[in-house]
Specification:
Elements (H helix, E strand, L loop, with lengths): L12 H19 L1 E8 L8 E5 H4 L4 E3 L2 E2 L17 E3 L9 E5 L6 H17 L6 H4 L10 E6 H8 L13 H10 L2 H12 L3 E6 L7 H17 L4 E6 L5 H4 L5 E4 L5 H15 L5 H16 L2 H7 L2 H14 L6 H15 L1 H6 L4 H16 L9 E2 H6 L2 H8 L4 H18 L3 E4 L3 E4 L2 H13 L3 H8 L9 H13 L2 H13 L6 H18 L12 H7 L6 H4 L4 H14 L11 E4 L2 E7 L5 H9 L13 H7 L7 H4 L12 H15 L3 E2 L3 H8 L50 E7 L7 E4 L15 E4 L8 E3 L2 E3 L5
Parallel strand pairs: 6-9, 6-10, 7-8, 8-9, 17-20
Antiparallel strand pairs: 1-2, 3-5, 4-10, 11-13, 12-13, 14-15, 15-21, 16-21, 17-18, 18-19
C-alpha cells in the first residue's frame, strides 16, 4: 500500500476550510513569538519569560545573491553594472522558488523559516493587513502559499522503519509520512492535497541534523523527488555548512549562504531588542540602556566576534540583561545562559524534589548520550529512551538504582522540564529535544570534561574530523581551559599525536583541527608551550602548498590546515617584502605570486594608511567623502589572515600600493591589463593551468567552497609563471579603465562566487572604482630594470 493514500475521501469545502483554518491558527501560535530563554522580568513578579513577536525581533539576515544552476550570468559584472549584491535573505523569496539556505550554527536559519511560516499563515487567515510584501518581499497580487514547516529530523524518524522503500520514483511520499508525525493524519492529507494543487510553501529545516550519512542521502532523494512531484510549490531547505552539497548541485536549487552579522546588523538587532524589552511608555529606560548594551558588545573585540552570530548575540543580550557584564568565550556565554535558565525555575524544581545541580547532571547525561548515539548524533529522541539515559544522575543524586524506577521517574522529570525549563522541549508525540542544538552541544562537552582524561579522549579522538562534532569540540576546549593549562595542553598534545609520521594528509588534518581549537582558546590567552611541537607541525604542513605534495591531501583538508596557519602565523608572508614573480614574455615586470592578503593589508591600516593623504594623492577626497577607515566586512576578514583581502575599492588598492612603495622604496602599483593577462594565459588552453575543465582541485569557484580561501592552496591551478589564484578565489582590480573616457575600472580572474566561464584568462569584468565587495581584491605589480 502506498504511504500516500490519495483515495482518502475529501472533506466538504466548509470542512476543508475549517480544517485549514485550525491548522493555520496552530502554526501561528507555534511561530509568532520568539521565546527568549533565560531573560525574565526584572520587576521580580512571576519572573515570566519574555516572548517577543517574531516580526519585531527578527533582524534581516543577509546573503550575497545566490547562484542558480551551473552558470548564472547575473553575477558577472560585464553584464550588470552592479556586480554582486549583498541582499536581505527575504528578497530571494520572490526570485527563487527552490532555495537552499546554508548557515553556521546559530546563524538564524530556523528563525527565518519560522518568520516565513508565521507571516504566510497570518495572511492566509486574513489576520489584519496582509504583511507578506513587507516582511517577505512577496507580491500581494499572487495567492498566499500555505506554509508547511517541519524539521527534516522528523522525516528521518519516519524513515527509520522501511528505508528500503526510499529511492523509488515515489519517494516523495515520505514527506506525507513525516507530516503525519508532525500534524494529525487528517491535516496531513489536507496539506498534501494543497501540495498537489501547487498552493504551498514547504519549509524543511535542518538537513544537517540527520547524522547518519546513508539516511541523509535518502532524505535528499526524497527532497529531490518532492521537488519534481510538487514542482509548482515554493521549497526552502536549511542546513549547517555540511551535508548539503548534493542538494546545492541540483539544477533548479539556488543556494544562499547566510552572512555573519556586521556592525550595522548588530546595532539593528540591539535596537529591536531594546524596543521589545521596553514598551513605548518606558522611553527613558530604553534610551539609557541602549548605549550601555551597545558599548559592552561592540566595544570588545572578542565579544563583537561572538555577536556576529544571531544566537550568540541573543545570548549576549540575555546575559548582559541579567548580570550587566559579559563573558568573552563561547563556552562561558552558553554556561551563563543555561545557569540563568536553571535559576529561573529553581523554586519550582525544589517543590518537585530536585535541585539545579541534579537537573544539570541529567541534562549533561542526556546531551552526551544523544550526541554520542550509536546511530550518529541525534537531535530528537524518544522520551522513553531519554529517561533511560538518566541512570547515573538518579543513582548518584537521588539514590535511585532500580532501572524501572529510573525509567518512570526519568519520564516524569523530563515531562516537567519540557513544560517550563527552556532547556529541553517536547517534539511531536512522545519525543524530546534540546531547545537549541547549541545547548545540547555545550552540555555534551561539559559531560566529557567530567570524565577522566582517558575517557573523554576515547570518545573525541575518532570524531575530531566529524563536522557533527565540531561545536562540541569548541565547547570542550573552552571547558578544559576552565580547569587549567594542564588539561588544555593535553588536548593540544593529543590532537597533534593523531598525525602519522610522514603522512602529510594526517598532519594537515591535525593542524586544521588544532587551528579551530586555538581560535576558541585565544580568548583565554592560551598559547601552546613550545614542547608540544605546534610550531614544528605548522612549518611541516607548509608542504600542502607544493604541487606534488598537495595532491596527497584533499582540498578541504588543505583549506582547514591553511586556515590554521593563518591563525598561528603563515610564514609565507612578509608584509613589506611580498613575493613577486616574473611575467612570461614581459621580463621587465614582476607580478605578485598571490593576491594581497589580510595580514599584509592590516599593516597598511595599522601604520596610518587611512590617515595620511600622501598615500591617496588625488583620491583623498573620495576616501574622506565615503568615510573609509578599513575595508568592508573587515571584522569578518580579520580572523583569516592568509585569505586575500576583499571589500577594498580600486582607490584603496591604489593607496596601498603607494604606501608600500613609500615603505620599501620600490615602485609597487596595480597591474595593467596586458601584464595580468600575460601572466594568466596558458598557450595550452583558456585557463591559467591549460585546457582542463575547472575542478575543485584547481581553483575556488562557486561549485565548491562558498567563501574566499587562503591563497596558494591550489598549486595545480598555477599559471605558467608560477602565479597562484589567477582564476577564482577573488576578482582582482586592474589599473586600466574599461573604456576610454569612462570612469569604470577593470578587474580580472573570476571569484569563488562565479562559474567556470568567468574564470577564463581572457575574461574582463568592470565596475565603479568605488565598489567594495566580498568578491574583489587585488594583486601587486612592479616594474624592474633589466638585469636586476
Amino acid at each position: 500500500m502506498d504511504i500516500y493514500d490519495a483515495t482518502v475521501k475529501k472533506s466538504s469545502p466548509e470542512e476543508e476550510k475549517k480544517l485549514l483554518d485550525d491548522y493555520l491558527k496552530s502554526l501561528v501560535t507555534e511561530t509568532e513569538r520568539i521565546d527568549i530563554r533565560g531573560i525574565y522580568s526584572r520587576s521580580g513578579s512571576g519572573r515570566e519569560a519574555i516572548r517577543f513577536p517574531i516580526e519585531d525581533i527578527y533582524t534581516p539576515l543577509k546573503t550575497h545573491r545566490p547562484r542558480l544552476g551551473a552558470d548564472n550570468a547575473e553575477c558577472f559584472a560585464e553584464e550588470r553594472d552592479s556586480f554582486v549584491e549583498r541582499v536581505p535573505l527575504t528578497e530571494l523569496l520572490s526570485q527563487y522558488n527552490r532555495l537552499l539556505i546554508v548557515g553556521e550554527p546559530g546563524g538564524g536559519k530556523t528563525t527565518f523559516l519560522k518568520l516565513i511560516a508565521c507571516v504566510l499563515a497570518k495572511d492566509a487567515l486574513g489576520k489584519g493587513e496582509p504583511a507578506r510584501n513587507i516582511h517577505l518581499g512577496l507580491s500581494l497580487d499572487e495567492a498566499v502559499p500555505i506554509p508547511i514547516f517541519f524539521r527534516l529530523a522528523s522525516m528521518a524518524d519516519a524513515m527509520k522503519d522501511g528505508c528500503s522503500d526510499v529511492g523509488s520514483g515515489a519517494s516523495w511520499q515520505w514527506v506525507g509520512r513525516a507530516m503525519d508525525n508532525v500534524y494529525s493524519h487528517t491535516k496531513s492529507k489536507m496539506l498534501q492535497r494543497l501540495l498537489d494543487e501547487g498552493k504551498c510553501a514547504l519549509l524543511l529545516d535542518g538537513l544537517d541534523e540527520v547524522a547518519d550519512e546513508i539516511l541523509r542521502n535518502r532524505i535528499m532523494d526524497v527532497v529531490n523527488s518532492a521537488l519534481s512531484h510538487w514542482n509548482k510549490n515554493l521549497f526552502i531547505v536549511s542546513s549547517r555548512p555540511f551535508g548539503y552539497h548534493d542538494l546545492a548541485n541540483m539544477e533548479e536549487m539556488a543556494t544562499a549562504h547566510i552572512d555573519s552579522f556586521g556592525k550595522d546588523e548588530i546595532i539593528e538587532f540591539l535596537k529591536r531588542w531594546i524596543q521589545a524589552l521596553y514598551p513605548d511608555e518606558e522611553e527613558r529606560e530604553r534610551t539609557d540602556y541602549l548605549p550601555e548594551l551597545q558599548s559592552a558588545i561592540i566595544g570588545s573585540q572578542p565579544i563583537k566576534k561572538l555577536a556576529r552570530n544571531p544566537v550568540m548575540l541573543t545570548c549576549l543580550c540575555v546575559v548582559h540583561w541579567n548580570e550587566r557584564r559579559l563573558p568573552e568565550g563561547k563556552p562561558d556565554l552558553l554556561a551563563a545562559v543555561l545557569r540563568w535558565l536553571l535559576d529561573a525555575r529553581e523554586e519550582t524544581r525544589k517543590k518537585r524534589g530536585y535541585t539545579n545541580i541534579f537537573a544539570e547532571e541529567c541534562f549533561k547525561a542526556l546531551a552526551l548520550a544523544m550526541t554520542n548515539h550509536s546511530e550518529g548524533k541525534q537531535v530528537i529522541v524518544d522520551l522513553s529512551w531519554a529517561a533511560n539515559q538518566l541512570t547515573l544522575p538518579f543513582c548518584d543524586g537521588l539514590g535511585v538504582d532500580d532501572q524501572n524506577r529510573v525509567h518512570r521517574e526519568g519520564i516524569t522529570f523530563l515531562e516537567k522540564e519540557m513544560l517550563d525549563s527552556g532547556i529541553v522541549e517536547k517534539f511531536g508525540m512522545g519525543q524530546v529535544r534540546f531547545w537549541h542544538l547549541n545547548f545540547q552541544e555545550h552540555y555534551a562537552a561539559r559531560s566529557l570534561v567530567d570524565r577522566s582524561d582517558e575517557e573523554w579522549w576515547e570518545i573525541i579522538r575518532p570524531r575530531l574530523w566529524n563536522p557533527q562534532w565540531a561545536e562540541v569540540l569548541d565547547h570542550l576546549a573552552g571547558c578544559l581551559a576552565w580547569t587549567g593549562q594542564f588539561r588544555t595542553n593535553l588536548l593540544v598534545e593529543r590532537i597533534l599525536s593523531t598525525a602519522t609520521r610522514g603522512d602529510l594528509a594526517s598532519l594537515a588534518r591535525s593542524v586544521g583541527v588544532l587551528g579551530r581549537i586555538l581560535r576558541i582558546l585565544d580568548v583565554y590567552e592560551y598559547k601552546p608551550p613550545t614542547r608540544l611541537g605546534c610550531d614544528d607541525a605548522q612549518k611541516q604542513v607548509l608542504d600542502i602548498f607544493e604541487p606534488k605534495e598537495s595532491a596527497l591531501v584533499p582540498v578541504e583538508v588543505r583549506i582547514a590546515a591553511a586556515e590554521a596557519l593563518g591563525q598561528a602565523g603563515d610564514h609565507r608572508f612578509k608584509p613589506l617584502d611580498p613575493e613577486m614573480l616574473p611575467i612570461p614574455g614581459l621580463p621587465n615586470v614582476l607580478l605578485g605570486k598571490y593576491p594581497v592578503t589580510v595580514i599584509e593589508y592590516r599593516h597598511f591600516i595599522d601604520n596610518g594608511g587611512y590617515e595620511e593623504p600622501e598615500y591617496w594623492g588625488e583620491y583623498w577626497g573620495v576616501k574622506e567623502e565615503n568615510g573609509w577607515m578599513e575595508p568592508e566586512y573587515w571584522d569578518d576578514q580579520a580572523e583569516y589572515l592568509n585569505r586575500p583581502v576583499t571589500g577594498v575599492s580600486w582607490y584603496e588598492a591604489v593607496a596601498y600600493c603607494s604606501w608600500l612603495s613609500s615603505q620599501t622604496d620600490r615602485p609597487f602599483r596595480l597591474p595593467k591589463s596586458e601584464e595580468w593577462e600575460n601572466a594568466a594565459v596558458n598557450l595550452k588552453g583558456e585557463y591559467p593551468w591549460g585546457k582542463d575543465e575547472p575542478t575543485p582541485e584547481l581553483l575556488n569557484f562557486r561549485r565548491n567552497i562558498g567563501r574566499p580561501t587562503p591563497v596558494g592552496i591550489y598549486p595545480y591551478g598555477a599559471a605558467p609563471g608560477g602565479h597562484l589564484d589567477m582564476a577564482g578565489n577573488v576578482w582582482e582590480w586592474i589599473w586600466d579603465l574599461y573604456q576610454s573616457g569612462g570612469s569604470r575600472r577593470v578587474f580580472r580572474g573570476g571569484s569563488w562566487f562565479n562559474g567556470a566561464r568567468f574564470c577564463r584568462s581572457a575574461i574582463r569584468g568592470y565596475n565603479s572604482p568605488a565598489l567594495r565587495d566580498f568578491y574583489v581584491g587585488f594583486r601587486l605589480s612592479r616594474s624592474v630594470s633589466l638585469g636586476t
